Amino acid sequence: MEKQKRFFLQENEIPKAWYNIVADMKNKPLPMLNPKTKQPITLDEMCVLFNKACSEQELNTTDAWIEIPEEVRNLYKNYRSTPLVRAYGLEKALDTPAHIYFKNESVSPIGSHKLNSALAQAYYCKQEGVTNITTETGAGQWGAALSYAAKAFGLELAVFMVKVSYHQKPYRRSIMQTFGAQVIASPSMSTRAGKDILTNNPNYQGSLGTAISEAVELAMQTPNCKYVLGSVLNHVSLHQTVIGLEAEKQMEMAGEYPDVVIGCFGGGSNFGGISFPFMRHNILDGKTTEFLAAEPASCPKLTRGIFQYDYGDEAGYTPMMPMFTLGHNFAPAHIHAGGLRYHGAGTIVSQLIKDGLMRGVDIPQIETFEAATLFARSEGIIPAPESSHAIATAIREAKKAKEEGKEKVILFNLSGHGLIDMTAYDQFISGDLTNYSLPDEVIQSNVDQLEKIIK
Ligand SMILES: *Cc1c(COP(=O)(O)O)cnc(C)c1O
Q: Phi/psi of residue 341, each to 5°?
């Protein structure tokens, strides 16, 4: 029988609602706190910084389904459904009895899953009469997605781009500028937060935490301006569930159900996006699927961080979130997976780890590039360095299945392509790439500085 390789949905089968896993969680995440009063943050306080619709979604613990606005769904149709692909080539290369599937979010016009939330957030801002938005970007994927989304809804956008990426990935900057965004290397001298950091450390190459502080500060000082975030927060993962909801239908078309679901992990949005719709069946229907979040060994908040209230940014402007964290002052090594260089995990995911519904896996940088190269050669797609963490984890699982002689079904999210990350591949090919080990003392000294709100 001829074997089907790719599975697509019709336009009318694209999900009409996102899935809010918090409504189904037995133990809800602890509340976010106002950093000044240390009281649970209110809707009005959220709305100072974020648009109202996303603030409501952020705090929504009761509605499992939240309708996708018609305008957003119409833009989704430009690239969704994304294909679910059976990775026959990779299976063959590994000689594994496992069935490996990946959801290919790299086919979005911007090259990653980030557009799924960018379109939604830009839409809500426009609806509420906002004219300007600010954000941060690491590797530039989020900034690129939001630049296009801002243009689609007629908003002005300023992007603070982590300095190391600004120089490592100049084409992402060009992409943002092509869509009409203003791009600033962070830390910059244009904000208080940036100035303070540069005064202490003039050569600081930036981090997502610093860039967030700058973007938040500019939003607070600009009239009719909101701040928009590309990961970590609940509403961002919510928007990304369109990935897993599609994948659920597509796996059904393939006649299979995953034994293990894998996503790479920066702040948790693509991981949550692919996982939560399947995890709902673990919570509600007694399924026993495993969920693995793949993080860099050099930024291991899930596997080696502590669970504590922490800020989302370096300067401490954001609400305090209960999360697995390495401390908001943590300066991760300059690995190529820029989108995974973030100190903390979202509040939902942090609670799910505590409840044993998922776990983190940490992968050294060189293993991710070995996995990426094998994947490229067997499937014909150059993966993003971030996504390669998920691929490396899938390969570990497939090898395990071979050792155990099991026909395991593995699903991972290919969060983006790496065609703009070829400098990283160049370094790998020429043998210049290194693994970074992170001593316990470094983690300890960072988390020791956190106020111990959770005793
Ligand atoms: C931003 C990014 C990530 C990490 O962010 P999450 O919110 O954890 O998904 C992963 N992969 C790609 C391609 C990205 O651009």
A: -90, 65
Q: Cα separation of 204 and 213, whole Å?
A: 15
Contact present, 416 and 387 (Cβ < 8 Å): yes
Q: What is the pLDDT of residues 366-414, one digit of tens each?
A: 999 999 999 999 999 999 999 999 999 999 999 999 999 999 999 999 9
Find the 36 Cα to ligand 1 centroid distance in Å. Answer: 30
Amino acid at 221: Q
- Which one-letter DSSP state was computed for residue 11? G
Q: From the CB of 80, is ligand 1 less than 6 Å away?
A: no
Closest CA to 144 of 167, 115, 121: 115
pTM passes above 0.90? yes
pLDDT digits (tens, 9 = 90+) for 42-54: 999 999 999 999 9
Q: Which two tokens stand for residue 360?
A: 């983190």
Residue 330 tokens read as: 């943590």
User: What span, in angstroms and rounded, lies between the C-alpha atoms of 397 and 6?
Assistant: 22
Q: Are 333 and 342 in contact (CB under 8 A)?
A: no
Task: State how far the Cα of 84 lies from the Cα of 5, in Å rounded to an integer.
Answer: 8
User: Cα(337) to centroid of ligand 1, in Å?
Assistant: 9
Q: For residue 343, how many C-alpha atoms fall within 13 Å in the half-sphere facing its CB?
A: 31
Other CB atoms within 10 A of residue 44 CB: 9
